[in-house]
Amino acid sequence: MSTKLARAPAHISQRACGATLTPRLQPIQHLTRRSILKARFTTAFHLHQPQLATPKMAASDKYSSPSFTALVVDAMRKHYPEELADRRWDNVGLLLGNIEIPETRKPKNPVVLLTNDLTYAVAEEAIQKNASVIVSYHPFIFSGLKSITTKDPQQATLLLLAANGIAVYCPHTAVDAAPNGLNTWLGDIVSGGSASSSSAAAPSTRTVINPLSSPAPAGFEGSGYGLLCTFHQPESLADIIRRVASRVGMRRVMVASPDPTRLSTARVDAVAVCAGSGWDVIKSATADVVVTGEMTHHNALKAVQEGKTVVTVFHSNSERGYLTEVMKPLLESELKGKEASVQVLVSEADRDPFNIVDVSEL
C-alpha cells in the first residue's frame, strides 16, 4: 500500500507571532477530517540574541603583577634556578601570585619575609609586617587543589594571603642542589667554617653525592643533592656534634652510634650531610657520620649496623639557619641595587613543630 503525506490545512497560518511553524507530516491511513484538524505542529523559534559588546579593555589589562614581586622572583631564580629542583615530586616556583590594581591598590611594600614553613601564624606575621612577598623554603602546595576552603589550615592560609595581596615563592630542592645552597652550608658547619667563624675550617674535599640527572644551567655545573666532606686529617666526632648543635640552636641533639661510649673520643674521616629527611639521598655515601634533620627508626638501625654514627636535629632545624646566615644577606645584596628601601626579614613565628621537653619542668 502506498503511503502519502498529508499537509496541514491551508487555513492554518505557518507564521505566527514571528515564529516559523513547521508542520509535522503523518501518513494518510484512514485519515478523518477530525484527525486532520488535530494535526500537531512542531514550532521552531528563531531566537535572535543580541551580540555581546566587545569590552573596551581586556581583563588582563586591568591588573598586573607588582614589579617588586618580579624582582624577588628573578633574584631567587638567579641564585637558585628552578631547573635544579627535583620536579619528579617537588613543587617549586611562584605558587601564589599577587596583583596590583591601579584604581584600588597602593604599590606593594618592598618587604620580603623568609620562612622555612608557611603556617597560618607566619601568614599573620607577614600581614603585620606589611610584607608583599613570602619566600617559603618548603612548598605549601604540593599537589593539585580541588577546592579552597577554610576547613583546611593550609587552604585557609592561602585564602588569607590572597585576600591581603601577598605572593609566595617556594624554592625547596633548588636550594638543596645549588652550589651555594643548604648542603654547602651544612658542610661548612661540620667542618667548622663560614658564618663569621673565628677559626679556620678543617680542610676537606667535598663531593656531591647525587649529581643532577639532567644538565645544569650555565654557571651551576656540579650541582646536586647531598654532600660528602672527606677531611684531610681525622676530625673529632665530639667537635662535629658540638658545631652542629651550636649552629642550629640546640643544646641537645639526637645521636645513634655503633658505640655510644666512644662519642667523646672517636675521630672520623668523612661526614655525609643532607638537610631535611636526607637518608635516601646520602645512604650510599662512604661516610663515618651522617648529619640530617630526621631519620626513621629502621633507617637509623641500618646506618648504625653499617658502622655509621647518625646525628639528627629535627627536620626544619637542619634548614632554618640557612635563611638567616645565607639567604637573607644574599637577597638584600641582590635587591638593594634595584629597590633601595627593600627589607628582607626572617620569620619569628616559624619553628619546628617538635621540641624536647624535660618532664621534670612540667
Automatic annotation (TrEMBL):
InterPro entries: DUF34/NIF3, DUF34/NIF3_sf. GO terms for cellular component: mitochondrion. The keyword Metal-binding applies. It comes from the Eukaryota. One of its GO terms (molecular function) is metal ion binding. This is Ngg1p interacting factor 3 protein. A divalent metal cation binds at residues 138, 176, 315, 319. Belongs to the GTP cyclohydrolase I type 2/NIF3 family. Keywords: Metal-binding. It comes from Colletotrichum incanum.
